[in-house]
Amino acid sequence: MFWLRKFWIIILVLVVDVFRAKVYAVPAKPCRILLDTDVDTDDFFALLYLLKLNRSEFELEVKLFSCIFYDILYMMGRDDIAVGVGGEGGILEDGTILPNVGGYLPIIEQGMTTAGGCRYRQAIPVGLRGRLDFDTNYGIRKSFLPQGSRKYSPLKQPTAQQVMIEKTSAGPITVFVTGAHTNFAVFLRKNPHLKRNIEHIYVMGGGVRSNNPTGCCPKHGTPHCHPRQCGDPGNLFTDYNTNPYAEFNIFGDPFAAYQVFHSGIPVTLVSLDATNTIPITEEFFKAFEQSQWTYEAQYCFKSLKMARDTWFDDRFYTSYFMWDSFTSGVAVSIMRNYGKNNGENEFAEMEYMNISVVTSNEPYGICDGSNPLFDGLHFPKFKLNKSGLHSGHVQMGLRDPFCFVENGKGKCKDGYTEEGTGPDSVRVLVATKAKPNHDLTSKLNREFFTNFLDVLNRPENTARFNLTTEFPHFRQAFYEPDFKNRTLGKPVVFDMDMSAGDFMALFYLLKVPVELLNLKAILVSPTGWPNAAAIDIVYDLLHMMGRDDIPVGLGDVFAMSQSDQIFHLVGDCKYAKAIPHGSGGFLDSDTIYGLARDLPRSPRRMCIL
């Protein structure tokens, strides 16, 4: 019987070994990522960093916010990634959220249309060094990126809410939020049953214990130097006189950020506390300049160089930080160390803190006309507490008198990720400092610098081509008609905005014989229906018509008396707020209903320098 018992023991061992082998032979599923972002330069860095990762580990499944990213995804061979943009849904007075809210407006101002004010958004410059530069990526986007078949198409474009519902319903997913939180907060409130599929939220934004290193006087400066945002927790360089506490991403929609942080889903915050410790150094810039072995690295460096060359002052290397790209690196490193509870990672020191997002200012329970969640309503929106922390004064704009303190820092805290111990605080894992480079011989002083350059230049998951290699016979050429032997007609200057009707009028003028009408110049007014970046469409249209000789001038980005008296690059939208942001409004005008992509690319497209 001994031999029989031994036989069964051997069989049992073999079965266990075979079972164990099968278990380990089954590859783990990759971590699915949903990226909710905006279109600043550093967002491109973050997106390309994620696209370069090993797809057996990490799978970027959806990208929200902008059709601009279609070309980047095409370059990287990732047309499979869904892009969600906009939506026409609204929010009722009682707080009922209808399907497909577009996220164009902060939640507290979202009604039944996509038209509305710019209470928070006015902190972002509209023209140069602001949305004009970001929407065109300084003119680099159309001169470098290839062009695929995907584009914005009215009535066919998937909305942000549609793609979030689809991808979240498919199973566990991790969310990266590197812009304003509006879209994601609306999704969470509308679809609470899908929270169970969201494993973790990584956020870039806010400042908890941060001290802004910019706007400080030199150690040996003149006594007439007055520090600006130096030492502030926030980074609103356009609004530190009234709100020195907020960071741009959270300030874009403080109420939405509050919903995300208090959703019950684990949150890791890569705040200004950490990103302020990883500025783009001159050594990193030079190393990047010498490490451009892939198209994606070339595109990132071109963008970074243009950001440096057009910076506000000569302090770029102490004022421009790795925000979203650093967040992506920290998040991915933490995810690789899954199971460790303290956020162990390669790139940042971490600490748990109890924080909340300030959405209104004390005293609470007042009705001063500043808070759409309460003012003029029989019952507070979303069934909020009439005397709760959302019921105070909500900052009305950049120069809100309520926020000014004579001879002192501003007192408004809208968008502040404030540390506290009260019942409204939640436990959040916070990145506090970028880790130094473990290679003491390297000129790069941060560990993430080395990793970022390494990832972008890897041959795996690299871009297939850029514009010139996609179309090797493409040549930039100026087309100027020869009118030497023709009698020219009446000289005309056409002052237009960039709606569809204006383009039809422009086509008509270009078709009139020059003996009758000589179109001498075009003035583009970005205070009306389109955004300033749509000037590229005018250049492309003239190029198609063989009229690269006609000069194009960009008008003031603000209506008269609407630019800020202190910082002229920002201002109010008193009149422009009547124009919808979505269908039939800016979205369609800025793309000519998606048809603008079919125009030839003019060599005169918007270029900062």
Automatic annotation (TrEMBL):
Record bears the keyword Signal: yes
User: Domain of life of the organism in this record?
Assistant: Eukaryota
Q: Which InterPro entries match?
A: Inosine/uridine_hydrolase_dom (IPR001910), Ribo_hydro-like (IPR036452)
The signal peptide stretch is 1-25
Gene3D superfamilies named in the record: Ribonucleoside hydrolase-like
The name under which this protein is listed is Inosine/uridine-preferring nucleoside hydrolase domain-containing protein
Q: Which residues are in the Inosine/uridine-preferring nucleoside hydrolase domain? A: 33-361
Sorted keywords for this record are:
Signal
Task: Write one Gene Ontology MF term.
Answer: hydrolase activity, hydrolyzing N-glycosyl compounds
Family as reported in the entry's similarity comment: Belongs to the IUNH family.
Q: What is the lineage of its organism?
A: Eukaryota, Viridiplantae, Streptophyta, Embryophyta, Tracheophyta
